[in-house]
Design goal:
This protein has 265 residues and is α/β, with parallel strands linked by helices. It is 36% helix and 19% strand. The strands form three sheets. The chain has an eight-stranded parallel beta barrel with strand order 1-2-3-4-5-6-9-12, surrounded by six helices. GO terms for molecular function: 3-deoxy-8-phosphooctulonate synthase activity.
Length: 265
Amino acid sequence: MILMSGPCVIESYDNLAKIASMLEPIAKNPKIDFYFKASFDKANRTSLDSYRGPGLEEGLKTLQKIKNEFGYKLITDIHESHQAQALSEVVDVIQIPAFLCRQTDLIVAVAKTERIINIKKGQFMNPKDMKHSVLKAIKTRGGKSATYEESQKYGVWLTERGSTFGYGNLVVDMRSLEIMREFAPVIFDATHSVQMPGVGEGKSGGDSRFVPSLSRAAVAVGVDGFFMETHFDPSIALSDGPNMIKTQELQSLINTLLAIQEISK
């Protein structure tokens, strides 16, 4: 099981290291392919006044320190094409944010690196149309078709993070997991799927109590892994706190998901 977990954004090295340390028992589980996640910049915050992160240069230095100290593989977001090369020198997975999943230049720039590319399905996208985003990466890397096997070979993943359902709400259509898994390994983003965009005053909300139930459903349907943002105290997190899962509660949930996965096999 792939697991990408960590705080939404780099708040400080101390907070990042504290969360990384708390995740060690999970990361060392031989049944888990673990990637530590944190963003150096949250470029799509609702408000101009919201905290975005330390930026590319300082953020990559901080992520490299985490990599050196804990030995974790890393994943972070990309926002502009010119960032691809610098990111590839530090992180193992470069993530295309959901709002940018159709941006050809961005996908091509990442595909020209040797890193895994994780494309998040836009909240506005038909899951079957994500095949075209996958093909952009595969063809850039010398492939010809979008199949599960080709995507594995060329290091292209897709992530489901819910679909817009009216204003301020997302829903997860579990059919999308099967549809997208026909042409790529699929990750289920359990925490962003319970986000409630724009319900706050200049910020998004969320309802993290639904993270476990949606995760159990996703693993039963069949996915290749999970994306779960976590914080030791979501109430003080500088981004996406309402939809995060407490780091102290993550181990129990992961154990449950592994058990369901084993039964499903």
